[in-house]
Design brief:
Helix content is 57%, strand content 9%. With 448 residues, it is an alpha/beta fold.
Amino acid sequence: MAFEGLTERLQDVFKKLKNKGKITEADVNSAMREVRLALLEADVNYKVTKDFIGRVKERAVGQEVLKSITPGQQVIKIVHDEMKTLMGDSNSKLEWGTEVPTVYLAVGLQGAGKTTTVAKLARSLTKQGRKPLLVACDIYRPAAVKQLQVLGEQIQVPVFSMEHNDPVAIARASIDFARENNRDVVIVDTAGRLHVNEELMGELKEIKMFLKPTEILLVVDAMTGQDAVNVAEAFHKELGLTGIVLTKLDGDTRGGAALSVKAVTGCPIKLVGLGEKIEALEVFFPDRMASRILGMGDILSLVEKAQATFDQEKAREMEKKIRTQEFTLEDFMEQMQQVRSMGPLEDLLGMIPGMGKQLKGFKGEIDDKELNRVEAIIQSMTPQERRNPSGLNGSRKKRIARGSGNKVQDVNRLLKQFEDSKKLMKQFADLGGKKGKRGAMPPMRFPF
């Protein structure tokens, strides 16, 4: 994910501070010089960096910090708080209009990912019980309308389009269509350009004037760094943005846009795209992002992902199977597939405090390849073998290995992992049951 280099640099700086039983103003100044360099290398705006360091130093050299029992931890907390403030202090939710339908207008340059983003947003709103309508107003980019229609079909959301060369007319007609078809939110995908120009802004201003959108969301590519901030500034000046959506925040990016855009434009980041999958759109929480940047993990987001993915009734059934030793390889594979649907395993592990540093050196190994191997091996077994793998002999293992394109050693390794997991999950289930009697929540269980 983005910020990997920045996180590493900051953790090294804070490790030095935490190792000191007592710190001086000179120690703080030295640490802040390193933090400043790390932020600039992450492509954070120069003025934003300067102001940020100034605020941290002002608070960090106070008597309550320098003379505290844990001065290093105090400085880290100050950095966390100021970073959270830098990105918006609290999360900014999407607003709802006073009239139906609510209108969201998505704007931005070509290549930022607008079309995919509006489809992701529509899917997210559908899961919240809303009835979105997607509107295809990008009549210039080849196949833009078709792309939106394909995505709409994929998420089962209708797409409004017209054989018309006037985006304003299409936008206006979509409102009547939404009302006639009981659609309570309209998401308009507008055309982009390669750069900000008068023609683009003129068209968007016209659409804005007729639609009076509740939200004007600028979709920007986080990988463009400071250019993303400059684009946001230009769009905000012309249109009066209400929010920003940062895409490709999972890519090989330094992340400076996320740390700069709110401070420069005054416009909050509302959503972030963390992958190409249609479900890879998340609400932006400044405090959680600050924790992730500082290597503190993000347990809240991990729990929310799990709650959204795991069916509670199935979870209870699974717990019963684990307790009664009826947990099979079929259940094992089902659990694994549910975990996979939460997102890349590397990102999930990175949300656990302290895991980021431990994952260093394993990048590329924590991917879908091993999970694909496990799935292929289990699918090469007969239903009886999946339910009772203890009866697998040498010839059966050879057949399974050949059928899945693996070696017998791979089959044996999976069987051992399965048995170890069964024991571990039985212990967790028993522990969770005892705690549950006292009102505590049983722990989440993963198959590996």
